[in-house]
User: Fold this.
Amino acid sequence: MSAGAAPVLTDTLDERLERVETKVEEILGELRRQRLERDRWQELADELAPIAEQAMNLTITRLGSEDFDLADLTSLAEAVVRDASVIEAWIGPLRAMAALAEEVGPLATPAVASLNAWLAKIDERGYFSFAQQAAGVLDNVVSSFSDEDVRLLGDNIVLILQTVKQMTQPEVMGLLGRTALTIQEVETEKAAEPPTTLALLRQLRDPEVRRGLARLLATLRTIGRVPAARAPVPDGDQTDRR
Assistant:
């Protein structure tokens, strides 16, 4: 019988030990929670102590120099005590922001140095001076056009862009380049004698000359199709004509 009762006694001791350990863990958890709560209040007190000291010194100084109603001071103290939880709630985010600033500070230093180096590099290349001169050009353009001119420009911006697109075609740009070179060559040969009529007629035998003349005539025909814009006549001139 003693051999059969030993396991029962052992189980009973194990269960008691488990219950004791559970109670001890609960007590330790409660102690840790109280310690954390006490540390938090202690941190709050440490942070508020300098502020309270400054406020007290300022209050004493003001009370010594001016007249204050004690009821107002009592009301202020009651408001601070009543809103202590609000003040504590504000201190938490401020503490987190300070910690974030401490962590981000070392990371931001290389970024700022890289930004300064990039700004110095583009300054050496002349971007800032170019932007300054471009701002002056833009100011001249803005001051040279009225609101009506800008409105008309907006109405015709599509036509202007289409014209620019056509002018920047490779064929047109090549023609303009060759024309500019030819004009320069003619300017260098300005001292030579002008060609005679017979020499001009002899050049008509050249296919390129005839092709260029045909293009010139086609251009003149296109210009002639555009109706001439009538210039506005002043009121005084109309009166005189009448």
The chain is about 85% helix and 0% strand. The radius of gyration is 47 Å.
